Structure of Dienelactone hydrolase:
Amino acid sequence: MRALVLAAACLLSLIAVPDPPAEGRERVRSAEIGIEGDAATVWYPAGSERRLPVALLLPGANVRKQYYAGFAAALADYGFVVLVPEHYPLPFIGYAVPSEHLLNRAVAWARVAAADPSSAIGAVLDPGTLVVAGHSYGAAAALYAAADRCQPPFCFGLTYRRPPELRAIVGHGANTTVGASVDEVAVRNIPVMFVNGSNDGVSELAEAHASFMRLSGSPSSAFVNLLGANHFCLTDENNPPGAAPDPRVPTTTWGASIATTARWTAMWFLAQLGDRAARDYVYRIGPQQDSAVTVELR
């Protein structure tokens, strides 16, 4: 774990990017909690002097939460309380996918934690600000939630309403293709960033980019092509047990890919929350200076 954080620090020193807040460094902690019966891990910078946004990470299908530990810790180091739930297998489907309702449950949990004077996590989180990072199926669930669409298998019922606390989304390995067509998703005024590996053999680059181009309703959107990475660029190992494997081999190291994905995810979130340095990085410095990616802005 520490090796991943150090790798991120080394890569950050090569380009002009806002550093993680000083109070978070070397003090990111984790805790096991429950959210309406589901297990979850929370990563947070202990002792923060300000309240931090809640960053919900929706895992990919059949990917256990522990395989996101490196990414979650790196993201928390930028000043977020990162919540990673353990999704449960759906009846009759045979695999586990995240639910759109996890956004609402995350906000409800944050409110309770913030109101608990004995909670170390509640003391540093802002229950009024939610950002969401999704991986693969988790990214699709986040997009449909932002569109207020109850979309099976991520939601079952007639309607769904996202929490008003939602501020921004980053989809990793995301697409909304159905066969040869693209399901056009109309998010409701939510900034969205796609991050896709150039070697992704599960969410292929053409599929992801087509989904990005057909996305509507976002006041700002970006497509980040992570060079050399495959579908599991933000997990602690390639092809985690239980997940549909990516047949393509990444040409970037795991430490470097996690550092890059965490950096762009954090910068996007912070930029949409009003951080000037992060906004300058996303819209000017990063696309020009970060040789690990290519960036398309809309």
